[in-house]
Design a protein that fits this description.
heterodimer; A: 280 residues; alpha+beta; Protein Transport Mog1p, Chain A; two-stranded antiparallel ribbon; 22% strand; B: 183 residues; mainly alpha; 9 helices; 2 strands
């Protein structure tokens, strides 16, 4: 596997500057266009920026209100999410039917691949395939992000801030679960048996801490040799994990989301997960 | 000298503006070309960014920040252009920018092809982050300042972009086909 340092070196080399000269006609066209371009006075530029900032603030407030409403709706007792320190219920198997307004089939043709395990999945048209993970256009980060993927790594670091320190030696799905449960910073649900793509394994929900400031860099869940590893995408990141045994190799699939992730995106992610076909 | 050109350009001197941007144009074009991987689109992006720069220059508070400001404008134009490119990728004519591959002790022709494919699959902001980091040598802190995102987000996106590019490099020639379309 190419390490993090190797890929840094490869990309430094690949992006290395080559002599590049812009054609004269490009700047001639700029000179022509600015002669016709109305000029904004300084106060108007400042005002535009100021208004953009205000609009952003209003949007942030609106987002917080939306998150609060969605969070309240999802956290009502009847919705029954299972993440907690007292594992008395099952992991979230899938969003409730009411949270899935559209169950129309996704168009075929999108593929996700991962070496050494390859898998395919059907993605909605507004999801972007990034090779080892896929996400809708709004991205993976808090407060509304979501992604689905297979991080490849299976070993859990003892220290969430150090992907190259002490890590678990996970040889089975149960080993992965035990290492996750041993992490005091993670809230881990109870574990149930499951199957994914025809392979059997374990299903568990994890929640990252609300405060990630313990790590100045990435907050790591799974480590990988030579690199930082798979990390959370923001405070209180929820991770639904399927850890299946693919011909003796524990393989992690996951849906990452937040309390503010729209229910329709969660439903879409579940549909993607259901469509996965594993090709070892 | 640049201060005088900036001041004159702010006052509306078009010749001063062109004198200001002309020596920077090759570097700016190279950035656009790295992100967009297409000469025509990079030229269009550079033109658009410079016209926006002319329009908004009166709002520039610190003439010493002219280079960072121009790069930020250009990168935002490139990100928008790349997003449009993704939406109509089926009709896009894309030219390789590397030219004939020279012998290379680090990267084979196949490696370059895989990297090119991986890079084109990246979301536009991740492309920009890789170019900022590997082409311009920006740290995650500088990337965050340039793109106006939190530092942790810059680190996270850089890491994810590395993962995608690493996967692209490690991918073999196998193409999985689902529903009649290839990956």
């Amino acid at each position: 596997m190419t390490s993090e340092r190797d890929i840094e070196r490869v990309l430094d080399h690949w992006f290395a500057e080559r002599p590049t000269q812009v054609a004269d006609r490009v700047l001639d066209e700029v000179a022509d266009r600015i002669g016709r371009e109305p000029r904004k006075p300084a106060w108007q530029v400042w005002r535009t920026r100021h208004m953009n900032g205000t609009a952003k603030s209003l949007a942030a407030v609106a987002a917080i209100v939306l998150v609060a409403i969605v969070g309240f709706t999802l956290l009502r007792p009847s919705s029954g999410p299972s993440v907690g320190t007292t594992p008395t219920t099952s992991p979230i198997a899938s969003p409730s039917p009411s949270a899935s307004p559209s169950r129309t089939p996704f168009p075929a043709g999108m593929v996700v691949q991962q070496k050494p395990i390859s898998f395919t999945a059907h993605l909605p048209t507004n999801w972007i395939n990034n090779g080892w993970f896929a996400a809708p256009t709004q991205g993976t980060e808090a407060p509304t992000g979501i992604s689905i993927g297979a991080p490849g790594a299976i070993n859990v670091p003892t220290d969430p801030c150090d992907g190259e320190g002490k890590v678990s030696d996970s040889k089975t799905p149960a080993d992965v679960i035990a290492a996750l449960q041993a992490r005091p910073d993670l809230v881990v649900s109870n574990v149930i048996d499951t199957t994914l793509g025809g392979y059997s394994g374990k299903r568990v929900d994890i929640q990252a801490p609300a405060d990630l400031s313990a790590c100045t860099d990435l907050y790591i869940i799974m480590a990988e040799p030579g690199g930082a590893g798979y990390h959370v995408q923001g405070p209180s990141n929820k991770i639904q994990m399927w850890i299946v045994d693919v011909e003796g190799q524990p393989t992690v699939f996951q849906i990452e989301s937040f309390a503010g992730t729209p229910p329709e995106d969660l439903a879409a992610a579940q549909q993607i997960m259901d469509s996965i076909e594993i090709r070892p | 000298m640049d201060h005088e050109l900036v001041a004159a350009a702010i006052r509306g001197d078009q010749a001063a503006f062109m004198d200001l941007v002309r020596p920077r144009s090759n570097r700016l074009f190279a950035i656009a070309l790295q992100i967009l991987r297409d000469v025509d689109r990079a030229e269009d992006a550079l033109q658009d960014a410079l016209v926006i720069a002319w329009r908004d220059l009166p709002g520039l508070r610190d003439p010493d920040r002219i280079d960072a400001w121009l790069r930020r404008l250009l990168i935002n134009v490139c990100i928008r252009a790349a997003a449009r490119e993704r939406r109509r990728a089926g009709n896009l004519r894309v030219l390789p920018i590397d030219g004939p591959a020279a012998p290379d002790d680090l990267l084979s022709v196949a490696d370059r092809d895989q990297l090119e494919r991986g890079f084109r699959r990246l979301p536009p902001d991740m492309r920009a982050i890789l170019v900022l980091h590997h082409f311009l040598g920006y740290s995650p802190k500088e990337i965050a300042e340039t793109l106006g995102i939190p530092r942790g987000t810059a680190r996270s996106r850089l890491f994810n972009a590395h993962r995608v590019m690493r996967a692209a490099l490690e991918a073999d020639a196998r193409l999985t086909v689902v529903g009649g379309r290839s990956a």
